[in-house]
Amino acid sequence: MGGIDKPGLLVDGVSLLDRAIAAARAIGADPLVAVGPPTAADASVHWVREDPPFTGPAAAIVAALTAMPAAPGPTWTLVLACDLPHVDAAVLQLVDDILLLPSDVDGACLADASSRPQWLTAVYRTAVLRRAAASIPDEGRDQSMRALLADLAIAALPDRTDSTGDIDTWEDYSRFTKESP
Hints:
Elements: E1 10-11, E2 14-15, H1 16-26, E3 33-35, E4 46-48, H2 57-67, E5 76-80, H3 87-98, E6 107-111, E7 117-125, H4 126-135, H5 145-148, E8 154-158, H6 170-177
Parallel strand pairs: 3-4, 6-8
Antiparallel strand pairs: 1-2, 5-7, 6-7
């Protein structure tokens, strides 16, 4: 998409970033840590950057975890990409489904229509995710999400609300901006 500010894209007049923040707020997520260049979206969001910038989502998660209080920290960490127009439905499904997970599961992510795990539409047990972040080489720089999550037991949950559709192309954006609210 030519290096545009994807989180700033508007769908139904609301930026993708604001949608993600609102979805996290709606379930009481605290603290809210966002990785990327700070915006004026919400003054209560703690902004961090992976170092160097643009070294991937694993590095972004490591940076975010470093910014979160160690203790007492949240039991669960919500991880969201900022390119999901229907992020609110995704978050609600995750919150409902984590209540049903066995205690030996370290996290849950939604799986898209082709059953691919969406690691960035997920909840992970914070303590386990912190251990994974501490063990990944180079603070996650240029590492895959698969490498970060390799030792975690993660349930891939079928996306019941068709909320994992994301915006990766201008065709995707056009499709989502033509949908009815």
